[in-house]
Design goal:
The protein has four helices and five strands. By secondary structure, the protein is of the alpha/beta class. It has a single domain, classed as Transcription Regulator spoIIAA, CATH 3.30.750. It has a five-stranded mixed beta sheet with strand order 1-2-3-4-5, with helices on both faces. α1 links the parallel β2 and β3.
């Protein structure tokens, strides 16, 4: 089992950093599945407003990874508030937009820097606190 999740704090928020950077092939697919199971466990234990940053820099996404991500999004949606994605250029950005339309429940957005992603997650938490 390969879980690449770190729980972190920034200002007033707790978020999860999910590292898929540089992954490809079967290892990438299995890591997506393992991380999904870990988020299901986290959510099932009562944490149901998860914020995360997903790093896909230098990773290679093919059909198997796309299917794994689609299933992951469906499975973690009940526990997830927002997902900031780093490293999405070209095809990966198009895939993120596609996943957002397919699943459409979790707010997902691409960013170039960690600072931008963190700022957006803070704004999502503030928006949630106001509702």
């Amino acid at each position: 089992m390969t879980v690449t999740i770190e729980r972190k704090r920034h200002n007033s928020i707790t978020y999860y950093y999910v590292n898929y950077a540089g992954l490809s092939g079967d290892n990438y697919t299995q890591t997506i599945r393992d991380n999904t199971n870990e988020f299901i466990n986290i959510g099932s234990s009562g944490e149901n407003d998860i914020l995360m940053i997903v790093d896909v820099k230098d990773s290679v996404i093919g059909p198997d990874q796309l299917e794994a991500f689609k299933k992951s999004m469906r499975d973690i949606t009940p526990y997830t508030r927002a997902i900031a994605v780093l490293g999405t250029t070209g095809l990966k950005k198009a895939l993120l937009n596609f996943l957002n339309r397919m699943v459409g429940i979790v707010e997902g957005k691409a960013f170039h820097t960690m600072e931008e992603a963190l700022e957006w997650l803070v704004s999502q938490q503030i928006k949630n606190d106001m509702t």
